[in-house]
Amino acid sequence: MIPYRIILGLLIFTVLITFSSCDRGLNDQNAADVVIYGGTSAGVAAAIQTARLGKSVIVIEPTNRLGGLTTGGLGQTDIGNKHIVGGIAREFYKNIKIHYDDSTNWVWQTKSDYIDGGQTRTGIYEDAMWTFEPSAALKVFHQMMKDIDIRIIYNQRLNRKTGVKKEANSINSITMESGATYYGKMFIDATYEGDLMAATGVSYTVGRESNSQYGESLNGIQAQAYGKTLLGKASNNSIHHNFIERVDPYVVKGDPASGLLPFISEGGPGTEGNGDKGIQAYCFRMTLTDHPENRIPFKKPADYLELDYELLFRNYEAAQGPIEEMYTYGDPLVPWINSSMPNRKTDTNNQKGFSSDFIGQNWDYPEASYEERKRIAVLHREYQQGLMWTLAYHPRIPEKVRQKVSQWGTCKDEYEREDGWQQQLYIREARRMMGNYVMTQKNCERIETVTDPIGMAAYGMDSHHIKRYVNSMGYAANEGNVEAHVNAPFPISYRSIVPKKEECSNLLVPVCLSASHIAFGSIRMEPVFMVLGQSAAIIACLGIEEGKAVQDLEYNQLEKKLIGQGQIVE
What we know:
Strand content: 15-25%
Structural class: alpha+beta
Oligomer: single chain
CATH superfamily of the domain at 20-208 and 487-564: FAD/NAD(P)-binding domain
Radius of gyration: 25 Å
Helix content: 25-40%
Number of helices: 13
């Protein structure tokens, strides 16, 4: 039998070691109460909230720029309902308005000349503004973080193989590729990819679930119903952002033996409603300008291949009658959504069958190495650079289109790159955690309503195309688009941003949260990520104060904390 004094000594030693590993922040500059990996908008909101609650915080951003897509081109805010945006997110949009109320911030046009052309217009009497330049968003974020104690580490990437050290089911430290190690009591993964979550050993999924898995109707494969025009009604969603009918997919028209044109997948679309590993398309949300003094004209890429844009040429050539009548929604001439931003700039997004979305070329991205991800991002940028040069200058593009597009170019004053292109790729989805509660289409439609909300979403269930293929009639088609409205805002569960307790007890995941593909399509908006980032910080701080796992907080107490910090939960 082991003597009592030895047992007691071992217990005391264990407690001291545990206390020491959790409280290194007292003496170690690489330690904090809360360590946030990913300086996206969610990471920024989480950092601000943590510091305001009196806890020490470190933000580790793998690049040299904070804000993710909010400072990376997505200045046309997708919300669905402004009234559900509270807390730090609402404060951000109020500060955007304050920024533009200052006449010195109108450099390339006057405020009176600006017309908000976005989906989310700013009303005359609103105290917030919802459209903004990426540079304005970056300035506002830095101003909001200026007078509070937040340590930001730039250009440090997680060692995804061996960088997470756990004691039992709790993260003790995370180590970067550089060898730098950061210690915390709580950790937040605010990346678009979910890299910390995955490296910690938390369960996750990639791709689309079948409709049968969660009793949904909008998940899984969404093939185009051939024979239905873009104005007609079909039994699925892929009628949008698709080709004019009769676009030939082969290198030599009508000759399958000549091979498929670039970026068309072998085989058909798959069985309607079945799951797969497909990822909705990525792109760069282009920040363009038509101001001559600030414009960088579109340049033909060094490795430009005309064949890469043959489907674009054929789509115009397939039009019956004037090209202005090709489509009755959006811009009738150009395959873009060119939303106006202040200072004669735009947030330019994908539209029509062949546009800025690089369909089917991102499936490997979520699990890819850093180098492979960089290669994928470069290919996306080069594809879009070639697309914009083609639309502006190629003789096979109709003259009316060339005249319009050639007036535009990237901006000299927005991003670090000399060519005016940003580094932030639009990661519309990557990994998604598998927690104790999975948000689904039923939540979006309020067929099921959660009892532990930490924020709300209100945008439609939205998925961009996932695959380009040859349909049953032998023509090019896109697959995967879903555009389904939600009738009302819906709450997001506390349980959807925390892992299963046995997998990790001190990690929160506000971006790659636990949701089905189609539910994530509604939740994945920047204002919602800010809301969830703030809620994650409140949970982390409350867990520290009570000495509890992130899964074990009393919801009633948490709800009071959320509401006290301005969050809207119902």
